[in-house]
Amino acid sequence: MSIGHGCRHLHDGLRVAGVPIGNDEWVQQFIQAKASAVPVEVGKLDFISDGLVHYQMLCFFQNTRLAFLERNNPTPLISDILAEVDATILEALCRKGTTNANGE
Q1: What does pTM read for this prediction?
Q2: Distance between the two ends of the chain, CA-based, in angstroms?
Q3: Three-class SS string for the chain?
Q4: Residues 14-28: tens digit of each pLDDT
Q5: pLDDT at 102
Q6: How far apart are alpha carbons 52 and 27 in whole angstroms?
Q7: Nearest Cα to 61, choosing from 80, 74, 75, 44?
Q8: What sign has the CA pseudo-torsion 21, 84, 71, 77?
């Protein structure tokens, strides 16, 4: 059902200015979809041999990616999802100290 100017009515929720608005389950699914891309992107940074540059790339590009959603959604609703993202980033930082540029 169209509600005007290309907007579509969704039964469970919709995205407004990048923020999911809807029932709790829909918001969590939206955030989970965004969070599931982070481990893939974090893995792409493993080739960076300089630990400081690797750290800066992880913090600047990955950690801030979900910060907007975190600021605009109730924390209890998404805290478990964001904890998984934080754990992924922490694991990548710890792994950088024990692997070479080939990830070995």
Answers
A1: 0.68
A2: 52
A3: CEEECCEECCCCEEEECCEEEECHHHHHHHHHHHHHHHHHHHHHCCCCCCHHHHHHHHHHHHHCCCHHHHHCCCHHHHHHHHHHHHHHHHHHHHHHCCCCCCCC
A4: 778 878 888 888 888
A5: 57
A6: 34
A7: 44
A8: positive
